[in-house]
């Protein structure tokens, strides 16, 4: 998973480094272990910076330019080859060769690749290029900053951070080329819509709009579906921040069970699904999920989370809730079971690491210390989203492409 952004000002007097920086910070929920930017300055000079730090820790003050791109995720992007710099969201077997080919013939370079991916790129001639994969797995949106700047970003949230305006989502298989005088759109590959189900459930921010869906409203519907499928007698409903909060709101509205804010945060937000090691996961849990005793003491709780990968996060969370006096803890998961790895770059690991792929529900409840645990059904997911044009490979083992 990754966050991409591209900016191009229509007047070269602009220095966009701060716009690029803060726009990238607005995407770090999509991945934060590595980040980088490239800026185009007068004379066709592209300067890049890459670092194994979150976007908010990048020091971009010495870089200047009137156009540029940014990346946040798990790989070392952008890649710069001569007069072209590219950042990619997706998995490519040989990204350096792709970037070289892209410089010669963008359309053929895209058509020659087998795996779905999206990218943003800046050329020394002052062109901003963006492509969205033909399956629609990796989102990209177009926007602007008044009449002064064009913006391409993985999510509209990045535009909102810098005061930009969202215009539209890019179509699957669409290539957009922007310069100071023109915007050109080319349908390079035919769309085969298989939107990533994890985008809806977990990846996108709750204030975002992805694949023609308002994410907050969609997650309310998921909470309502959980209430229909698993009505549980309890004293309070609590959602795990931030992703699952709308699930809890929807469940509470549907059942009438009171909603409580069960946790407060310490420090910067950490997405434990993206953490690379167990220590970071545990520390991340403590920073992200510090329970509020008065919200849980002596109560029968329904705890709602967006997904379950290894079970580490929920096990630690349930332990802390019990320690603070929770009488019962019933867990609801706002997605079907994750039982297969993702070959497209989403942080769903090998089957041997996925708790739902290896244990029955009763054993999982024992392992994490819960009274019960239930997952949203696949039909419930389809109903909440409103269509079936989804990649559900991590849930079923059936993928839209061979790999």
Descriptive report:
It catalyses: 5-phospho-beta-D-ribosylamine + L-glutamate + diphosphate = 5-phospho-alpha-D-ribose 1-diphosphate + L-glutamine + H2O. This is Amidophosphoribosyltransferase. One of its GO terms (molecular function) is metal ion binding. Its cofactor is [4Fe-4S] cluster; Mg(2+). The chain is an alpha+beta fold. The protein has 2 domains: 3-193, Aminohydrolase, N-terminal nucleophile (Ntn) domain (Glutamine Phosphoribosylpyrophosphate, subunit 1, domain 1), CATH 3.60.20.10; 212-396, 3-Layer(aba) Sandwich (Rossmann fold), CATH 3.40.50.2020. It contains 13 helices and 23 strands. The strands form 6 sheets. It has a 7-stranded antiparallel β-sheet with strand order 3-2-4-1-10-9-11. α6 crosses α7 (245-255), α6 runs antiparallel to α12 and α8 (278-288) packs across α10 (312-323). The longest helix has 15 residues, at 215-229.
The tally of domains stands at 2
Highest CATH level, the class of the largest domain: Alpha Beta
Q: What is the number of E strands?
A: 23
Shape: elongated
What is the mean predicted local confidence, pLDDT? 93
CATH architecture of the largest domain: 4-Layer Sandwich
Strand content: 25-35%
Task: Supply the helix-strand structural class.
Answer: alpha+beta
What is the helix fraction of residues, given as a range?
25-40%
Radius of gyration: 22 Å
CATH fold-level label of the largest domain: Glutamine Phosphoribosylpyrophosphate, subunit 1, domain 1
Spans with pLDDT under 50 lasting ≥5 residues? none
> Biggest sheet, open or closed, and with what strands and sense?
7 strands, antiparallel
Strand order of the largest sheet: 3-2-4-1-10-9-11
In CATH terms, the superfamily of the largest domain is: Aminohydrolase, N-terminal nucleophile (Ntn) domain
Count of DSSP H/I helices: 13
Distance between the termini: 17 Å
Keywords: Glutamine amidotransferase, Glycosyltransferase, Iron, Iron-sulfur, Magnesium, Metal-binding, Purine biosynthesis, Transferase
Catalytic activity: 5-phospho-beta-D-ribosylamine + L-glutamate + diphosphate = 5-phospho-alpha-D-ribose 1-diphosphate + L-glutamine + H2O
Family: In the C-terminal section; belongs to the purine/pyrimidine phosphoribosyltransferase family.
Pathway: Purine metabolism; IMP biosynthesis via de novo pathway; N(1)-(5-phospho-D-ribosyl)glycinamide from 5-phospho-alpha-D-ribose 1-diphosphate: step 1/2
């Amino acid at each position: 998973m990754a966050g991409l952004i591209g900016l191009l000002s229509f007047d070269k007097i602009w220095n966009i480094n701060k716009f690029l920086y803060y726009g990238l910070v607005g995407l770090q929920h999509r991945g934060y272990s590595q980040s980088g930017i490239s800026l185009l300055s007068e004379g066709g000079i592209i300067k890049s910076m890459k670092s194994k730090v979150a976007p908010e820790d990048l020091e971009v003050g010495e870089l200047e330019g009137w156009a540029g791109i940014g990346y946040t995720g798990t790989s070392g992007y952008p890649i710069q080859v001569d007069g072209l710099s590219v950042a990619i969201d997706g998995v490519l077997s040989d990204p350096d060769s792709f970037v070289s080919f892209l410089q010669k013939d963008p359309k053929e370079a895209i058509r020659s690749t087998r795996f779905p991916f999206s990218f943003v790129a800046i050329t020394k001639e002052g062109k901003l290029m963006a492509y969205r994969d033909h399956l629609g797995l990796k989102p990209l949106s177009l926007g602007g900053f008044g009449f002064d700047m064009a913006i391409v970003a993985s999510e509209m949230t990045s535009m909102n951070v810098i005061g930009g305006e969202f215009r539209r989502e890019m179509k699957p298989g669409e290539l957009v080329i922007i310069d100071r005088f023109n915007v050109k759109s080319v349908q390079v590959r035919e769309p085969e819509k298989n939107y990533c189900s994890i985008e809806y459930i977990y990846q996108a921010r709750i204030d975002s709009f992805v694949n023609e869906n308002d994410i907050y409203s969609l997650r309310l519907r998921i909470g309502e579906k959980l209430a229909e499928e698993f009505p549980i007698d309890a004293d309070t409903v609590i959602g795990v921040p931030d992703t699952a909060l709308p699930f809890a709101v929807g469940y509470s509205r549907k059942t009438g069970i009171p909603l409580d804010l069960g946790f407060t945060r310490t420090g910067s937000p950490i997405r434990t699904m993206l953490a690379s090691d167990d220590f970071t996961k545990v520390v991340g849990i403590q920073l992200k999920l510090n329970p509020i005793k008065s919200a849980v003491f002596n109560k029968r709780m329904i705890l709602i989370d967006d997904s379950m990968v290894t079970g580490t996060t929920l096990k630690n969370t349930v332990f802390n809730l019990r320690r603070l006096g929770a009488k019962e803890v019933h867990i609801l998961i706002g997605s079907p079971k994750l039982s297969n790895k993702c070959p497209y770059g989403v942080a769903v690991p090998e089957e041997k690491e996925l708790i739902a792929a290896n244990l029955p529900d009763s054993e999982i409840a024992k392992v994490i210390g819960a009274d019960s645990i239930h997952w949203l059904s696949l039909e419930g997911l389809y109903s909440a989203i409103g269509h079936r044009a989804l990649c559900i490979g991590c849930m079923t083992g059936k993928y839209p492409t061979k790999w």
